[in-house]
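Handout for the seminar on molecular recognition.
Each group receives one record of this type.
Step one: identify the two inputs.
Step two: read the structure output and locate the region that could contact adenosine-5'-diphosphate.
Step three: write two sentences on what you found, then compare them with the reference statements printed after the record.
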Amino acid sequence: MCMATVKLAENNSITIPHELLKKLGLVPGDSFTVEEADGGIIARPVRPVATPSVNPATVDGKSLKDSISRKNLEVGIQYIKGIGPKLAELLEKKEIRTVEDALFLLPLRYEDRRRLLSISSLCPGQSAVFSGTVLSADVTATKGGRRVFEALVRDDSGTIVCKWFHANAVWMKRTWKVGRVGVFSGEVNQFGYQREVHHPDVEWLPEGGQLQTLLESDPANFGRIVPVYPLTEGIHQKTMRRVMREVVDVFLPNIVSAVPSELLPSEFPNFREALSQVHTPPPEADLADLNAGATPAHQALAFDEFFFWELGLALKKQGVLKEEGIAFQVSHRYTKELVRLLPFELTTAQRRVLAEIKNDMMAPHPMHRLVQGDVGSGKTLVALMAALIAVENDYQVAIMAPTEILAEQHWHTIHRWCGRMGLEVTLITAGLKGKAKKEALGRIADGSARIVIGTHAVIQEKVEFAKLGLGVIDEQHRFGVLQRGILKKKGANPDILVMTATPIPRTLAMTLFGDLDLSVIDEMPPGRIPIETKVFFESRRPQLYDMIREQVRSGRQVYVIYPLVEESEKMELKAASQMAEHLQTDVFPGLRVGLLHGRMNPVEKEAVMSSFTSRDFDILVSTTVIEVGIDVPNATVMVIEHAERFGLSQLHQLRGRVGRGKEKSYCILMTSGTLSEDGEKRLRVMESTSDGFRIAEADLEIRGPGDFLGTRQAGMPDFRVANILRDGTLLEKARRAAFDLLEQDPELKGSVYVPVYDELLRRWGKRLELAMIG
Ligand code: ADP
Ligand code: MG
């Protein structure tokens, strides 16, 4: 029995999910009879249910074509002429289920088949199309013993070798017959004196056929710039081209751009034209631009994607602006006192950002602000100052940190200052149990706890605030928008301050947090001495140990960090504790080695941390739990084992744990000799710069945005065409256009804008809903 949930729409129609439609063999245009039955009412399609092997669209592709509306881009791909169940299944593997999915499957690259080249003119590196006659073809063996199928092809001007590795020799010999004439395409390589084409595409001339006839009879594959689509096993490039051509031909006329034409930059073709050009580039198109995704057509599509994303963010931001929030008053009661207590002056950047926060807090709308600042730039202090403003107004503050250790560290710092002002600061951790927990929850509920610090434990159901006025989220990208929303619901529209230590490149920040206002702490507290960073291979380990001894001898302390081993805490623990033992007994018998790992409970961790802070031991071996937050100015050496396993931004965070005092600090990235060239290049970035933004940018380039932040949890849109690295300027343009549009018509109520709104919901529906919560 096939069950599906169907929804009754406003006009009393029912939308049937595609899957069900497919199972029933229904196509657009079918109708139903409705009859009374025992269990309720049964609806039966009038049209006989098609047997799976019959493809209804091939039966009457015409009428299907005629009945298409905008919505019908959601038609299942199996109804397209020439797509049977088997091909449909293969396409589904590439996530192509609907016509729309297909239309947005853009070519990976393009091949210039506008004209045939003479074999003598082929140059290495060129992607070339040529015709010729097979002179010889057989299996040969390389010096290394690999079997290779090799064919020699000739035209009037010269010869060239075609090669296949791992080919089915029997089948190859049957097709590659001496004397056969064909059109070949592929990339030209040079090996010594010999030019070769590996795994060329081939189109054979029928016996006695004319070359010209072949070329003209197959316009999809010859005589033009042809698209090369991403494939999945079992689908041939030619099949893909045929399918895509059909989809484009039949459905393109139904495409309308929802972006109002006055908002589209004038240098871009309209949406329909752009889609057409991307799949079927015009003869005069620039091949390099096509391959770089830089043609006006590509850019127009990217603009369209950015526009709708930014429009969603703009709407959300506007919604927040309209919300009623708390208008705090600044009495300076506690903030002034804290400034007086501090042994240093606030930096100019800290003061500027604080002024921005103050403005937001005084406004009668909820603050939604992101504070971005490199490790050690002094964000905690800024957050504390904001917290004190809320406290001055008799509101409570919740501070959420991504890890227990960081929450504890924050608690330490904040408790130290607030204690001196008589303000109660409460730490909530996962380990808090029984009576202690009940008491803590009680003090939060009755308002005696003025500032509450914790991990996501802070937003658990049981935590109830008497009067929450400000939520601070440290390290936003680890939480994502959902938590932001829940935290917000713990109070009556409290202000939200998001802090991020990972310097997010501007374009990425705009994409992710476009609905937040941005403040940047772009200045370090004075007197910091640059950290010297070195990549060490295993052979230099003795040198590393000498250096550690020397640093400890002059009174300094050392961190040794171990990465997560295969995601397993157990293994991680083993590696770290074995290392600690080895260092203590074999390497530094005269020094004191401590161990900190993720399996310790908060009390144990706390004990280790505070004994390290008070110099009870010299070397702290730790798993990545100290990634953020630890503040021990006397520590001057950071050793990171298996550094290649960390992301650059993570390495930067770890490195930020040293260089906090007056002494020169060192960061040693230990790595094995088996590092790839790219891997080494990556680590060398750390040697060359201490600028978190540059490191983040390099990291982003190497790993891609999804990996950089962890796409899913960050709510990062996966754009189909747009690329936030490549199309940064375009993103800014789209953002301006979206915000301008809302300025003209804040609710998109004008009739011209209705399609924009519909399209917005259709495209980003679920995502936007999610984003809207925050
Ligand atoms: P972040 O959270 O941005 O990584 P922290 O807030 O932990 O940085 O600050 C790092 C260190 O710098 C802390 O020891 C803090 O006390 C100190 N600090 C903060 N602001 C200043 C300042 N204006 N001048 C000197 N030191 C500062
Ligand atoms: Mg911090």
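Reference statements: The longest strand covers residues 127-141. Residues 47-70, 710-714, 770-774 have pLDDT under 50 and may be disordered.
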